[in-house]
TrEMBL record, chain A:
<keyword id="KW-0349">Heme</keyword>
<keyword id="KW-0408">Iron</keyword>
<feature type="transmembrane region" description="Helical">
    <location>
        <begin position="421"/>
        <end position="447"/>
    </location>
</feature>
<feature type="domain" description="Cytochrome oxidase subunit I profile">
    <location>
        <begin position="24"/>
        <end position="565"/>
    </location>
</feature>
<dbReference type="Pfam" id="PF00115">
    <property type="entry name" value="COX1"/>
</dbReference>
<feature type="transmembrane region" description="Helical">
    <location>
        <begin position="318"/>
        <end position="338"/>
    </location>
</feature>
<feature type="transmembrane region" description="Helical">
    <location>
        <begin position="141"/>
        <end position="167"/>
    </location>
</feature>
<dbReference type="GO" id="GO:0009060">
    <property type="term" value="P:aerobic respiration"/>
</dbReference>
<dbReference type="GO" id="GO:0004129">
    <property type="term" value="F:cytochrome-c oxidase activity"/>
</dbReference>
TrEMBL record, chain B:
<feature type="transmembrane region" description="Helical">
    <location>
        <begin position="51"/>
        <end position="70"/>
    </location>
</feature>
<dbReference type="Pfam" id="PF02790">
    <property type="entry name" value="COX2_TM"/>
</dbReference>
<keyword id="KW-0813">Transport</keyword>
<dbReference type="InterPro" id="IPR036257">
    <property type="entry name" value="Cyt_c_oxidase_su2_TM_sf"/>
</dbReference>
<dbReference type="GO" id="GO:0042773">
    <property type="term" value="P:ATP synthesis coupled electron transport"/>
</dbReference>
<feature type="domain" description="Cytochrome oxidase subunit II copper A binding">
    <location>
        <begin position="165"/>
        <end position="345"/>
    </location>
</feature>
<dbReference type="InterPro" id="IPR008972">
    <property type="entry name" value="Cupredoxin"/>
</dbReference>
<keyword id="KW-0249">Electron transport</keyword>
<keyword id="KW-0812">Transmembrane</keyword>
Length: 606, 358
């Protein structure tokens, strides 16, 4: 019975009509196989992540020793660090591009792009995405936008530097800052392409989940990963076009003299002709995407964690339906809370009340999810694989970061912590670190499926613990710096002697940040080495229930060499026992989805 | 405190390295079956479970250390009438979230330790419990409802910029990279203004044809009489800025093309605020740091830093360009008499225009 998971490796060579003869180009570059596209997303995302993290290290170095020369700056920033002293414009550019890269290119494309592509067809029992071609176009548009974004770092007057939120008029007027010239144009072009890529991907995910589920795979038998990816794609389709519109209007304002966001401006000794626009309008449009974006980043991570925690706890996820309901509630609420970024923007205070209300509502499904994770661990038989550690870490940072959201989401309290380091600490924990943990958890967990090899667990443990210590070391003290009223996006705090006593803490944070950044090298080494030299992976290393582990260990376009398996149960029959108190399948504590109900077994609790 | 933290972290780090080296050694033992080599075994589970326990204890210590070591980072008592309410709400919210934080993190990591995998251990198939789900939906609902209600009442009070209590009307004007203040003069009414009127001495674009503007006074320091409500009208000439007055628990974005507003009543004069125990101690500490820094600077042939004396300040808190980090203005809160005396010394707009013509 222990072999019951392997649907077959040999049964059905005659059905290999899906397996085309492939050249190097069609297999590795312009591939339409969702598994290859997922790997392309992953590797591109990781490279972008390395760049984004390196930028954060540069910023932290500057904040630890503001205005002092540094060899690293001189080596990496060139003319932007004359004599090794970082230019204030460059600091703002780093802030901007770090944010953009991490939010969009790493945590949207790198996380959701990778795992939605990889897992949706495999876990719902489909041979590929609904449109393999669209999927390929989606990746290459993403690649193009990433290339443009990186390219923008090298333009004469510097890359976009108005913050990742690119609020006009700062982002609209080259007179206001150098980065708002060609750098901002490239930023907008890159993002426009990125949005196209994201939409193609999302539409594909939605259609695939709705139409291509295998026999027996009802919506309530979907693994929570798929639910999360599915709902994420829907939020993306709803909100990304709004950012596209905002970007388009901003391009109009910048290049064609329209006044959507500009009015009454006097700059560099001249009054501009713009009249009647409103920067607050841009803020609304931006955050209509920007807030759902937080959940676009987070939900896939939570889906991944749900799956990994259940598998490694050897228990069903607690409250499967409540988890789905929470995902749906979060998705719905996420589109009506954007105003909490704008309490002090000058919008009508009554709107502030409304957004406070909706924002604190969204805390409820989030709380339910956290409690469900904790209950899932309770009385489990926890297998502490690296993926599991990162999942537990995610729940931890999600709670810590989420709780401070109660302060920020309250319009009254937001008045005095708005745009301080308190905010920076909050969102880095709740969406940055949490989503990165989700990414790492996913990589450790599905690496065997992606590359047919195992990652080294001990390096994984080292990676996790160093990252966990470092992440809290960076972001927990940062809350207190924010409580002192220290504004974010300041090149240096030395112009306010009131902040002088924060300098040591800023140094401490920098030490942690640098150490944590270097700790990621354990991951890089492990990842690269394991691709080529890792131990050969067994078919189902984590003894998991979901369908992706039934494909056998050959990678073919079409996933299953034989017929697609039929699904008979939900994915969380871990440690399920029959009336005699024995596991329903004797000798193994899990019952994969393609195994029919056993004699005397009840389908229960979901 | 920082030194303590560093030592503590170094110790943690040493423990993890030690534990890891043990694991690595264990991993080398020959009897492992090749198949499951990179899957956690019983000893991994045990060790990682223990690490979880150590981690959460360390986290508790870190949280306590931060709250104790960084307690003087928290802003001192508010210097505005609505600030006390703000501070109470912040305190209550902080207590609530820290209680939840301690409990949930404790459970999460303790369960990770307690239920770490062992061969032959049977997990409990426990998929659902409507009552539990109901309980932990209801508790956040109730707690959050309380916080929301308090928050919304405060918010309505703070944002209600009515003119019933004869507030002083002051304009705060932002530009890259500085601030100007405009007092509305004897009529307590600001004259119309638009960037299109900016010319010569008329730096913030007051309409020279509007009578209300003639007695307006423009300055670059914000003086406020204590205990009189003030309505701030914010205007920007170029990009978004944000007027942040942390000690008054006040902030509002400054938006080109529109006038935003915020109302509060300063309740403590600059002199009184400086002489509070908290502030004298804080300033003493800061000056100690600055003296040390100055020594180094002088040794390198640079100019020493000035000693610091606390003054209220207004700073820019919305990214606005290269010198965003140094866009500040001094605020002075003083008695009504002192305020009036100071105001007398300022020039009216009428005078400014007249001078410009001469």
């Amino acid at each position: 019975m222990a072999q019951s998971i392997a649907v077959t490796a040999d049964q059905g060579h005659d059905e290999e009509h899906h397996h085309h003869k492939q050249t190097f180009v069609t297999k590795y570059i312009f591939s339409t196989d969702h598994k290859m596209i997922a790997k392309q997303y992953l590797i591109t995302g990781l490279i972008m992540g390395a760049i984004g993290i390196a930028m954060s290290v540069l910023m932290r170095l500057q904040l630890a020793n503001p205005g002092e020369p540094n060899m690293v700056f001189e080596a990496l920033l060139g003319k932007w660090a004359p004599d090794g002293v970082m230019d204030p414009n460059m600091y703002l550019a780093l802030v901007t591009i770090h944010g953009t890269i991490m939010v969009f290119f790493v945590l949207t494309a790198g996380l959701s792009g990778t795992f939605s592509n990889f897992l949706i067809p495999l876990q719902i029992g489909a041979r590929d995405m609904a449109s393999g071609f669209m999927n390929m176009v989606s990746y290459w548009l993403f690649f193009l936008s990433a290339a443009i974004m990186i390219g923008s770092l090298f333009v004469e007057l510097g890359p976009a530097a108005a913050g990742w939120t690119i609020y006009p008029p700062l982002s609209a007027l080259p007179e206001a800052m150098g980065g708002s010239g060609l750098g901002m144009t490239l930023w907008l072009v890159s993002m426009a392409i990125f949005i196209a890529s994201s939409l193609l991907g999302s539409l594909n995910y939605i259609v695939t989940v709705i139409n291509l589920r295998t026999k027996g795979m009802s919506m309530t038998r979907l693994p929570l990963t798929i639910w999360a990816f599915f709902v994420t794609a829907i939020i993306g389709v709803v909100s990304f076009p709004v950012l596209f519109a905002a970007a388009l209007l901003l391009i109009m304002d910048r290049s064609f003299g329209t006044s959507f966001f500009l009015s009454d401006i006097y700059i560099k000794g001249e009054v501009l002709a713009h009249q009647g626009g409103s920067p607050v309008l841009f803020e609304h449009l931006f955050w209509f995407l920007g807030h759902p974006e937080v959940y676009i980043v987070l939900l896939p991570a939570l889906g991944i964690t749900s799956e990994i925690i259940a598998t490694n706890s050897r228990k069903p996820i607690f409250g499967y339906r409540a988890m789905i309901a929470s995902i749906l509630a979060i998705a719905f609420l996420s589109t009506i809370v954007w105003g909490h970024h704008m309490f002090v923007s000058g919008m009508n205070p009554f709107l502030g009340s409304v957004f406070t209300f909706t924002t604190l509502l969204i805390a409820i499904p989030s709380a339910v999810k956290s409690f469900n994770y904790i209950t899932t661990l309770w009385k489990g038989n926890l297998q502490m694989n690296p993926g599991m550690l990162f999942s537990i870490g995610l729940v931890s940072t999600f709670i810590t970061g989420g709780l401070t959201g109660i302060i920020l989401g309250d319009s009254t309290l937001d008045i005095n912590v708005h745009d301080t380091y308190f905010v920076v600490a909050h969102f880095h924990l709740v969406m940055g670190i949490s989503a990165l943990y989700g990414l790492f958890a996913g990589v450790y967990h599905w690496f065997p499926k992606m590359f047919n090899r195992m990652m080294n667990k001990n390096l994984g443990y080292v990676h996790f613990w160093l990252t966990a210590i470092g992440a809290y070391g960076v972001f927990f003290p940062m809350h207190f710096v924010g409580m002192a009223g220290l504004p974010r996006r300041y090149y240096t705090n030395t112009n306010f002697p009131y902040f002088d006593d924060l300098a040591d803490t800023n140094k401490l944070i920098t030490y942690f940040a640098v150490a944590t950044a270097f700790a990621q090298l354990f991951f890089v080494y492990n990842f690269v080495k394991s691709i080529f030299f890792g131990k050969k992976a067994p078919a189902n290393p984590w003894k998991s229930n979901t369908l992706e582990w039934t494909t056998g260990d050959t990678h073919i376009h079409g996933n299953w060499a034989g017929p697609i398996p039929t699904v008979y149960r939900w994915p969380y029959d871990y440690s399920k026992v029959n009336e005699e108190g024995e596991y329903v399948i004797a000798g193994q504590d899990y019952a994969p989805q393609h195994i029919p109900m056993q004699d005397g077994e009840e389908e229960m609790n979901h | 405190m920082t030194a303590f933290l560093i030592i503590f972290i170094a110790a943690l780090f040493a423990i993890s390295v030690w534990q890891i080296s043990k694991i690595v050694n264990l991993g080398k033992s020959p009897e492992h079956d090749v198949e499951a080599a990179e899957v956690a075994n019983d000893s991994d589970n045990k060790r990682q479970g223990q690490m979880m326990l150590v981690f959460v204890i360390a986290m508790y210590i870190m949280m306590i250390a931060c709250f104790v070591g960084y307690q003087d980072y928290f802003l001192p008592d508010a210097a505005s009438a609505h600030g006390a309410d703000y501070d109470n709400l912040l305190l209550l919210t902080t207590v609530v979230i820290m209680v939840v934080q301690v409990l949930t993190q404790g459970l999460l990591h303790f369960f990770s330790y307690k239920y770490h995998g062992r061969k032959g251990q049977k997990a409990l198939f426990y998929a659902d419990n409507d009552r539990l789900e109901f309980i932990w939906t209801a508790i956040p609902v109730v707690v959050l409802a309380g916080l929301i209600l308090w928050g919304l009442f405060s918010w309505n009070d703070i944002m209600d910029a009515n003119t019933d209590d004869d507030p002083l009307i002051v304009e705060v004007y932002a530009y890259q990279f500085g601030w100007k203040v405009r007092y509305s003069g004897a009529d307590n009414t600001l004259g119309d203004a638009n960037v299109r009127f900016i010319e010569g001495q008329n730096v913030i674009g007051i309409d020279p044809t509007d009578k209300d503007g003639m007695d307006d006074k423009v300055g670059s320091e914000l003086h406020l009489p204590v205990n009189r409500p003030v309505i701030f009208k914010f205007r920007s000439q170029d990009v978004l800025h944000s007027a942040y007055m942390p000690h008054f628990r006040a902030q509002m974005n400054v938006v080109p093309g529109m006038v935003t507003q915020f109302k509060f009543t300063p309740s403590v004069t600059s002199e009184d605020y400086k002489s509070t125990e908290f502030m004298t101690e804080k300033v003493r500490k800061i000056n100690e740091i600055r003296r040390q820094k100055s020594k180094e600077l002088v040794a390198e042939g640079d100019v020493a830093l000035d000693p610091y004396e606390f003054e209220y300040y207004l700073l820019c808190n919305k990214i606005c360009g290269a010198s965003h980090y140094n866009m500040q203005m001094k605020i002075v809160v003083e008695s009504e008499e002192d305020y009036n005396e100071w105001l007398e010394t300022q020039q009216t707009f009428e005078k400014t225009l007249a001078n410009a013509e001469n």
